[in-house]
Amino acid sequence: MINLLSSYLEDCSTPQYFCFAIRCEVCGEFWYSSSVPFSKAAQAADYSDKKELYDAIYQREKERAKLAAGKEARERFSQCPICRRLVCDSCFLICDEMDLCKECADRLKEYGEPVVP
Ligand SMILES: [Zn+2]
Ligand SMILES: [Zn+2]
After folding, report:
1. Which ligand is in closest contact with the Cα of 99?
2. How far is the CA of 96 from the centre of ligand 2 (A)?
3. Backbone angles phi, psi at 43, to 5 degrees
4. pLDDT digits (tens, 9 = 90+) for 69-108
């Protein structure tokens, strides 16, 4: 699931902050991960002769931030077992037989309550 999620994470990072977004494929709402500041943002802006060094640190911190964003997203997104789309908790229903996204539940006439109403 983490791997699936990372492939959906959109990079919204800036030179100062790391942030990732995922779009629910049912309602189209974007979810943004908590942003993580780049620890060397000030130095990187001041010492352009050390750009390569700060670039490397930036990439390393970004990888970590992406993993953290993936974990965070796992609490808010589920993959529908029918259509295989990644949907947010308000579009994902707990049904009697199997938990499904809203659209599949409608189509299959399954009733359920959203994970987050
Ligand atoms: Zn949704
Ligand atoms: Zn579905």
Report:
1. 2
2. 15
3. -60, -45
4. 999 999 999 999 999 999 999 999 999 889 999 999 999 9
